[in-house]
NERD domain-containing protein (Heyndrickxia shackletonii), 229 residues
Amino acid sequence: MLLLDLLLILCLIALFIIIPFLQYQQSNYRKETNFSFLKVYLDKGLLGEYFTYKILQKIPGNHKTVVNAYLPNKRGGTTEIDLVFIHETGVYVIESKNYSGWIFGKENDRNWCQMLPNKPKSYFYNPVKQNQTHINALKKEFPSIIDKNIISLIVFSNRCQLKKVSVDIENVRIIKRDQLGGLLKRFNAKSPKILNHESICNIYSKLKEFTNVSQEDKKKHIEHVSQYK
């Protein structure tokens, strides 16, 4: 029995630690961010981004993805975009929300609500408005990209339930992570190709410059954002 127990423990270690570690080490997300395995797996926000990034890499068509771009905003600080998926059918600006529980919110509300079992309600800034700020900053840097070619995606964790979430804005989608692949494939099937390989690479290269941010600048960004919460 002891031998069987030991084998079971080793199998569980391989399943939940070694295999995910090896997969992460070989991932493009690690190459893009230089984040360590532990940093990502111990931070639920980064982990959500990583899971979303993996889905994006499987989408057909010509594309590139930028992670954690810090663009200047009109307040003199920066705004951080979680993921920008630059695809031949358009530019998809993604706000990743790796939340659990019940989620409530409307497009015009300032704050949305999260409810967890046996815990008080918690509130977070409307992610639709948050992502629109990201898009405004992106448009300032890339004025050639027209509005209809920019899609705002708010991607929640599969662990949550979108109970009463209503958004009727064109080119905005509120989804759970397991819906992302299907949504993008439908966009891919019905949308014309508007960006060629050169355009995708040019946007990627310029946007990539905004990811080279020091820890001090990241700290300033967090302090700046906290002033407006």
Notes: Strands lie at 63-72, 78-87, 90-97, 101-106, 111-115, 122-125, 150-156, 160-166, 172-176. The first strand starts at residue 63 and ends at 72. The chain has two domains: 1-42, 44-226.
